[in-house]
Request: fold
Amino acid sequence: MTGLTFSLKKNPAYKVDCSKLVPDKLTGLSLQKILEITLNNGINVIDLFEVSGDNSEEIIFKNCTSQLDYIGHKMSRGNITVEGDCGDFLGANMRGGNIICKDNAGDRVGDCMRRGLILIDGNTNDYCGSRMIAGTIGVHGKVGNFAGFAMKRGTLLLTGLPKLHATIQDCGAHTLPFLALLFNSFKPLSTKFKAIKTNRVQRYAGDLACNGNGEILVLLD
Amino acid sequence: MNINGIQIDDTFAEAFNMRATRVLITAQNLKWAYHAANAMTGFATSVIGCGVEAGIERELSETETPDGRPGVSILMFAMGSKVLMQQLETRMGQCILTCPTAAAFSGIDSEDKINLGKNLRYFGDGFQTSKLISAKRYWRVPVMDGEFLCEETTGMARAIGGGNFLILATSQPAALAAAEAAITAMKKFPNVIMPFPGGVVRSGSKVGSKYKTMFASTNDAFCPTLKGLTNSELSPEIESVMEIVIDGLSFEDIAMAMRAGIEAICKLGDKNGIRRISAGNYGGKLGPHHFKLHEILGEVLT
Reply:
């Protein structure tokens, strides 16, 4: 079986809601049925994508652009790989599984996510990890403003320090043993995070407006 | 059967069904992994007084542990799942949570799960966090040396306890040297532990006692100082008897370890004062597993 691949034919002039293109909703559907799925604005999958492959647990978006929102929305299992940029709300309300974005993501990555893993090789815009309930988001590039806004639990793993708001507090530099397990789990994945060699991080806890059990871990050399 | 001048009795060891679990303990280095494991498996020689029988199974290299640090694996056996759960939680809380740099992980997969860090997490007083990594849940509990990391559950397996054999020798040093040789050989086997001090027990017991409150008492038939007083099993030249008790995850594991131990003793031979190998049983009526010494040794040595 090969991964179910959605290749964008051309960059749409409007935002597209991709929340129906997740493993949970595509299991057992024939290729024809998938092509007939209606996205927003009355547009069908066939109008935007060339679709190939048959493994709905391994979904790949090719030629992806920032017009594609809600990729991985509410997914609970499987893997989604985004080749190119993606739009806002990547992995929003996610319940499990893995999302790997090879380039940049928009606003509110992982908004309200409860479980699962999102790894972004590029940059993200604002409100990364907003209202996060749990789970893990890694951003290899830069992160916009208000990272971890209203996050309850969960981990934001970053390579550089973003501008933090007042209710995210510095807890110091630490060598955290669980990171060895986390990085081990990245080994089968195609991501820049595989190259990380250190378990040493600066730990910021927050959002203190929501109990403060979330954390932003900034990798140290 | 006689091997290298040592008589192997035509008898069997009688063993019982138990429940077992394995925990992998890692730390900054082996020294601290052993500190944690030794504490966790301390006072765990016999279910009669300790609740569980536990021991260190083997060392683990950095490549064998979940977190890439050196560690040891321990096995813990109990007569039932409830006691095993209680003892595991108590010992985790007092011995692993407390030990600098130590972390604990599941060492056995099974459908039956028992708590490893599931309740220990409350020590974190609300600051604890969990991480679900590759479908396994771990708890991170803030402690004074950093973070205590512990998998939520470990597996529980059906196992066998009470495999044993007796070493009969002409002197106490000879019996102990033979027992040490056996333990050295047996420690190379996975899936088994010898729970007594140094793997050896000198106070073998029989069922019952002249005192009503005692369920077990000294095995007078094998006590060398009682040769003239009781229905002794010992011939005149026997001056000391040592026993090795083996708990294992399967009949084959115990049988293989017993054979390796007895073979190591037989290599020493009668010239080192060892005269007989025997085994402890209750007539075959109490325990469902019978380790017949001649069958265990049969294939290789006769």
Q: What stands out?
A: The CA atoms of residues 59 and 72 of chain B lie 4 Å apart. The radius of gyration of chain B is 21 Å.
